[in-house]
Amino acid sequence: MKRKTFITSADLVAAAGLPFGEEVQQKKLRHQVFFWLKNPDSGDDKQELIKGLQTLAAIPVVKQLRIGVPATTEKRDVVDNSWQVSEMMLFDSLDDQKFYQEHPLHLAFVKQFSHLWQRVVVYDIME
After folding, report:
1. Is the overall model pTM greater than 0.85, yes or no?
2. Most buried of the four, 14, 43, 53, 105, by CB within 10 Å?
3. In Å, what is the CA distance from 90 to each residue of 4, 35, 51?
């Protein structure tokens, strides 16, 4: 009788480079939003929008919230720094992002602060 070699789940996990005993995590959704202000030179409008964005961290499904402004990096054809404020959120799932979109705090944010922007671009990214 020939000796058979069996690949165990531990072998598969090791081959995949995952720590043994750790489950493969569900893919996360990154929600990146760029805002162009109606008054792009207004520091007050920029600060008001940033304060409004900070309120969205209270929505339970928002795992991470980062708010930023364009960096003063080297000017290149591939760099778009024409926007004034950006926010990035991390969600555990598509369902959580949908919950966020319909959450009363998000709806209130849009109602209260949408007068500040003239354009918004959203990139939703699965990690």
Report:
1. no
2. 53
3. 46, 18, 19
